[in-house]
Amino acid sequence: MGPGFSIRETKKEDHLQVKGFIELVDNDFYPPLSKRGGGIPERIEKCLDTPDANFLVARLMGRDRTYLPEDFIAMVGYTRNWKSDDSAYINFLATHPEHRNGGVSKALCMRLEEVLVEQDVKSIYLCTWSGNPAAIKFYEKLGYYSYTVVLNDRGIGIDTIYYKKKI
Ligand SMILES: CC(C)(COP(=O)(O)OP(=O)(O)OC[C@H]1O[C@@H](n2cnc3c(N)ncnc32)[C@H](O)[C@@H]1OP(=O)(O)O)[C@@H](O)C(=O)NCCC(=O)NCCS
Predict the structure, then answer these.
(1) Residue to probe by mutation, ligand 1, list 95, 138, 154, most atoms within 8 Å of CB
(2) Which of 53, 60, 90, 134 is geometrically suited to a Cys-Cys bond with 65, CB 3.0 to 4.6 A?
(3) 129 alpha carbon to ligand 1 midpoint, in Å?
């Protein structure tokens, strides 16, 4: 069992830590987030503490907090009013490499569902890619189902898989 953690929404003042965390996991994404249109700066500008979007972040609690230079251990980004005013989109999800398989992202996604249900959101959308078995297993275990696959969308043999969950 890993150290305990707490979950909260991010604020504008978290900009540096949010940036540091995305940079830390950038190469776990395909293509890396820094290589996509607008890169990491635009992603943060569009998602950090805006009227329609924000991140939920998991932070280490208690005496273990000091062992990471930055204390974010996982982060999920969401955008409301996605396909309609009762749907949202997960635009980012990652757990710090040293804290994977400890249930942190599952806890973040469950909390996100609670937050969105309170705001009358009925469906969550997201996408991942076919070379990411960890994310595929993760999302399917959480009850997401795939509704569209765009073949070779990210390169030869790398498909984009679109997922949805009703909450
Ligand atoms: C995908 C990712 C976010 C999962 O985060 P995590 O904190 O390690 O996941 P959790 O520990 O909360 O796992 C929740 C469930 O998913 C399963 N799971 C997680 N990683 C898995 C893996 N590599 N292989 C198989 N199953 C996995 C767990 O077994 C667990 O199942 P359980 O509820 O039955 O115990 C993490 O691997 C990651 O950050 N990957 C790199 C970034 C990325 O790919 N993000 C998604 C892009 S769309």
Answers:
(1) 138
(2) 60
(3) 14
Residue ID of nearest Cα to ligand 1 atom 48: 128
- Binning pLDDT at 50, 70 and 90, where does residue 3 land? low
- Integer angstrom CA distances of residue 44 from 20, 33, 69: 11, 11, 20
Kindly list the protein residues whose Cβ atom lies closer than 6 A to any atom of ligand 1.
25, 28, 74, 93-95, 100-106, 128, 132, 134-135, 137-138, 141
**42-91 pLDDT, tens digit each:** 999 999 999 999 999 999 876 555 544 458 999 999 999 999 999 999 99
Q: Mind listing the domains of the chain with CATH numbers?
A: 5-118 (3.40.630.30)
